[in-house]
């Protein structure tokens, strides 16, 4: 599976960040430290390494979205790996191989119109939807989904799905088994 979170926070490498300390009421160059943290995701305790900005003057933790955003992503990545759940980047690249919009791809998968968009922006698919997404990465799975949901998408999208299936089946004739990691 792809694990491609390439987003970088400026200065993350040097472990400092220019930010504002509300305690000191001034701009500071905060040190970024790593610490073990636990969050609850879907009723499960997820342990991950959290980055925290510490004010060099007063020692307070400084809330900064440039640090907190990646922390949430890191926690969700741990959850995804534990459950074999596809990443937003994987989902996006799979959809692009089909050449479908998020809405059309979502309907093709049998999801609601907005669902694919939510998953591409970080929401976590439930297990059955995750299985369907993995199915969609194979030619046989795509053919099955087309027979199930082809009526929900435009004719143009149907043609694109057929092109995807053709490409898959000609390229991987010998490796057409569906392997779903559990
Ligand atoms: Zn401070």
Structure, briefly:
This protein has seven helices and four strands. With 182 residues, it is α+β, with helices and mostly antiparallel strands. It has two domains: 16-83, Ubiquitin-like (UB roll); 88-171, no CATH class.
Can you describe what's shown?
α5 crosses α6 and α6 runs antiparallel to α7. A four-stranded antiparallel beta sheet has the order 1-2-3-4, with helices on one face. The two termini are about 15 Å apart. The chain has about 180 residues and is of the alpha+beta class. It folds into two domains: about 70 residues, Ubiquitin-like (UB roll) (Roll), CATH 3.10.20; about 80 residues, no CATH class. The protein contains seven helices and four strands. The site of zinc ion (ZN) has 7 residues, from loops.
Helical region count?
7
What is the strand tally? 4
Beta fraction: 15-25%
Q: What is the H/E order?
A: EEEEHHHHHHH
Determine the mean pLDDT.
89
- What Rg do the Cα atoms give? 21 Å
Largest beta-sheet details: 4 strands, antiparallel
